[in-house]
């Protein structure tokens, strides 16, 4: 098990937070997705899902919702 921490430029609205948790949370290997104030914590099984792929998909999903990651 591994955790991925992402920082977002602004807080998610409730609907966007729910959409992100539903989409990423359904991926094989993802155990949980927490969206806190300006932060996203994804708990995942790195034997089922490569971190680089999870980062790419998460970034794309976040940007589709109109948010940006802090680099």
Notes on the structure:
This protein has one domain (2-64): Alpha-Beta Plaits, CATH 3.30.70. The protein has 71 residues and is of the alpha+beta class. The chain has a 3-stranded antiparallel β-sheet, covered by helices on one side. It has helices spanning 14-25, 51-64, and strands at 2-7, 30-36, 39-44. It is built from 2 helices and 3 strands. The longest helix is centred in the last third of the chain and has 14 residues, at 51-64.
Question: Any chance you could write out the topology, listing elements then pairs?
Answer:
Layout lengths: L1 E6 L6 H12 L4 E7 L2 E6 L6 H14 L7
List the keywords.
71 residues, alpha+beta, Alpha-Beta Plaits, 2 helices, 3 strands
In short:
The chain is of the alpha+beta class. The chain has a single domain (2-64), classed as Alpha-Beta Plaits (2-Layer Sandwich), CATH 3.30.70.100.
Say what the CATH topology is: Alpha-Beta Plaits
Instruction: Kindly provide the radius of gyration, computed on alpha-carbon positions and rounded to a whole number of angstroms.
Output: 11 Å
Stretches where pLDDT is under 50 for at least 5 consecutive residues are none
So what's the CATH class? Alpha Beta
């Amino acid at each position: 098990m591994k955790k991925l921490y992402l920082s977002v430029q602004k807080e998610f609205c409730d609907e966007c937070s729910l959409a992100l948790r539903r989409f990423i949370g359904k991926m094989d290997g993802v155990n949980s997705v927490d969206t806190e104030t300006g932060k996203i914590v994804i708990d995942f099984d790195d034997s089922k899902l490569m971190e680089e792929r999870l980062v790419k998909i998460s970034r794309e999903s976040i940007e589709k919702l109109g948010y940006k990651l802090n680099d």
